[in-house]
Amino acid sequence: MKRLEDIDVNFRLSGDIPADTAFYSAYDAPFTIAGIAPNAPGVLCRLPVSFLPECNDGVQQLAWHLAGAVVRFSTDSPYIAVAHHLTTKAVMPHFTACGQSGMELFEETDDGSRHVKNFIPKLDNGCGTLLEQSAYAPLPGGMRHYALYLPLYNGVTGLSLGFAPDAAVLPGRTPSIEKPIVFYGSSITQGGCATKCGSCYTSIVARRLDAAQINLGFSGSGRGEKNMAEYIASLDMSAFIMDYDHNAWDPPHLEKTHEVFFKTIRQAHPDLPILIISRPDYDRDPELAKACFAIIKRTYENAIADGDKHVRLINGRTLFGDTDRELCTVDGSHPNDLGFLRMADVVTKQLKEML
């Protein structure tokens, strides 16, 4: 492991971090970073950098946001310190700073995960998040497994983790479902607008199923292109969630791309569980949602007619439930934590049966 003094990054550390803290680069063993593509060491991007020029402008930018990315490790340290740089100030009026740019720490066990600490980013005089961040959190002590979730709508460089100087730092726990569940979709899939980065529905589902995940949600930019389908088809995964309805800007575009996207994945993975989902914010434009769902349902029905036994469909109208639906979003579209929890309830049930 590289110590902080050997890393080409400088930090002004928070005053509550003990002076003798031993910092190590999160890019080196025994740490593992799941949910990112296999790029060069220290390059945190959800897609291969070599693939980015083939993607639309939004994906090229948003792939550097780390929705679903998790650093795993084990330690007996009585505390953890985190130091890193954010790549943007990330100011959104409808999205909390800790959801956009914060981190969240969980303890992982064979019996489930437990929230430990939400790292809320420091602000720059109310004008956005400071690019340089450091934070401290006490830990219960004893050798335990941890998972640190990275920001949903921001990138990170120079990520370093600090521990008591005599603490052991070992590899983290491997999820029971090692092959990742892959999610592809819109800003909702990416996690907008969860109050904490671990509250995104994809992460709730992954924790409940004890599964690895790859989140390929791209705000406004998950448009169902053939090359994206081909890239996803190249991945080794345990299940695929196809959730890009929102970014197909009109029904004709959705009709042109949806079944082609599905068939591209299915041809590469004949037995892969595939869960197709339509938009959850049905109430915002019921006529548009109804028209889009009819197209999505046709993809599903054609697959069933072709003998597909590994595909299921969720009508997004059911995701927020039947009561207090207006409490599930911040703006009529993007879910808050209640909305994401209700989505996760429905999706988890389906995936449990499929897996």
List the helices and strands and how they pair.
Layout: E1 22-25, E2 32-34, H1 57-62, E3 70-75, E4 79-86, H2 97-101, E5 103-109, E6 112-119, E7 132-138, E8 144-149, E9 156-163, E10 169-170, E11 177-185, H3 187-190, H4 201-209, E12 211-217, H5 226-233, E13 239-243, H6 251-268, E14 274-277, H7 286-305, E15 311-314, H8 337-354
Parallel strand pairs: 11-12, 11-13, 13-14, 14-15
Antiparallel strand pairs: 1-9, 2-3, 3-8, 3-10, 4-7, 4-9, 5-6, 5-8
Descriptive account of the structure:
The chain has 2 domains: 4-170, Jelly Rolls, CATH 2.60.120; 177-354, SGNH hydrolase (Rossmann fold, 3-Layer(aba) Sandwich), CATH 3.40.50. By secondary structure, the protein is α/β, with parallel strands linked by helices. It contains 8 helices and 15 strands. The model has no long low-confidence stretch (mean pLDDT 95). Strands 2, 3, 5, 6, 8 and 10 form a 6-stranded antiparallel sheet that branches. Strands 12-11-13-14-15 form a 5-stranded parallel sheet, sandwiched between helices. 25% of the residues lie in helices and 25% in strands. The radius of gyration is 20 Å and the shape is globular.
The first-level CATH class of the largest domain is given as: Alpha Beta
Terminal Cα span: 37 Å
Rg value: 20 Å
Helices and strands: which structural class?
alpha/beta
Number of domains: 2
Task: Name some characteristics of this structure.
single chain; 355 residues; Jelly Rolls; Rossmann fold; 8 helices; 25% helix; globular
Quickly describe the structure:
By secondary structure, this protein is of the alpha/beta class. It has helices at residues 57-62, 97-101, 187-190, 201-209, 226-233, 251-268, 286-305, 337-354; strands spanning 22-25, 32-34, 70-75, 79-86, 103-109, 112-119, 132-138, 144-149, 156-163, 169-170, 177-185, 211-217, 239-243, 274-277, 311-314.
